Amino acid sequence: MAIDVRVPTILRSYTGGAKNVEGSGNTLAALLDDLDSRHSGIRERLVTESGDLHRFVNIYVNDEDVRFTGALDTTLADGDSVTILPAVAGGSPPRLTPPR
Amino acid sequence: MSGLQLTRELRDAMIAHARRDHPDEACGMIAGPEGSDRAVRHVPMQNAARSPTFYEYDSADLLALYRGMDDRGEEPVVIYHSHTATGAYPSRTDVDRAAEPGAHYVLVSTREEHRDEVRSFRIVDGVVTEEPIEITPAQTATAADPPEEPGAD
Fold first, then answer.
1. Smallest Cβ distance to B99: which of A10, A60, A83?
2. What's the pLDDT tens digit per position in A44-60?
3. Domains, in order of start, for chain A
4. A87 CB near a chain B CB, below 8 Å?
5. What's the CATH number where B52 sits?
6. B27 part of contact set with chain A, CB < 8 Å
7. Domain range holding B119?
């Protein structure tokens, strides 16, 4: 059971700089536990204390965003490819006065 | 080397994108060869939020963007967006959500119709540092690469 995981730049401090690591697990939750056993600390950057995926991180299994496939319960199969990407987002401060 | 080096064409392309999407915020990236810190390929993105005060990439567009960069051996060199009613300075949200410590975060303000405001920042661990933008001569390779259409679909 080998699953290729693409690690974003901001989390490569946990993987010794590696961009791709291999993991195993029948679900995304199991995969993250497996990764955390070798790359300690990476799981808590992806999963909140209450056990949900962080809102600002996107995780894809093959081409599917796991938000639409069961989040941490998403099932994995040998040869699947998992991509972790930080969401790109931002905003401007609220206006101090209403627009004219 | 400090600061962002950018051709006038790429700078103008970001401004044009910001003007086009005004009053909504515009967003996009300029990718470049990994480790080079050279801004080469402009990728205008769609603001999935379609909002004057917030921007985000669509999840599928984000995946396609990074796949495209991986295939070309590129990384994000510039991550830009516009502010349409405030200045070209990162907001608290921008700082909280900045997740590419190696990138130049460029802000374009379109609050004034006839004055372009473009500034560049590093955002690392919540710390914002402004840096100069140096306009460099156009490179042949850059001029030959047409900008891609917004979004992935």
1. A10
2. 999 999 999 998 999 99
3. 3-86 (3.10.20.30)
4. yes
5. 3.40.140.10
6. yes
7. 4-142
| CA end-to-end span of chain A | 60
pLDDT digits (tens, 9 = 90+) for B16-59: 999 999 999 999 999 999 999 999 999 999 999 999 999 999 99
Tally of structural domains, chain B: 1
Identity of residue A5: V
Residues B65-112: pLDDT tens digits? 999 999 999 999 999 999 999 999 999 999 999 999 999 999 999 999
- Residue numbers of B between 50 and 89 with CB closer than 8 Å to A: 51-57, 59-60, 62-63, 66, 70, 75, 79, 81, 83-86
The interface pTM score, or ipTM, of the predicted complex is 0.89
List of long-range contacts for B135-139, beta carbons under 8 Å, 24+ apart: B135/B6, B135/B7, B135/B8, B135/B11, B136/B5, B136/B6, B136/B7, B137/B7, B138/B7, B138/B8, B138/B9, B139/B7, B139/B40
pLDDT band (50, 70, 90) for residue B145: low
Between chains, do B70 and A89 touch, taking CB under 8 Å as contact? no
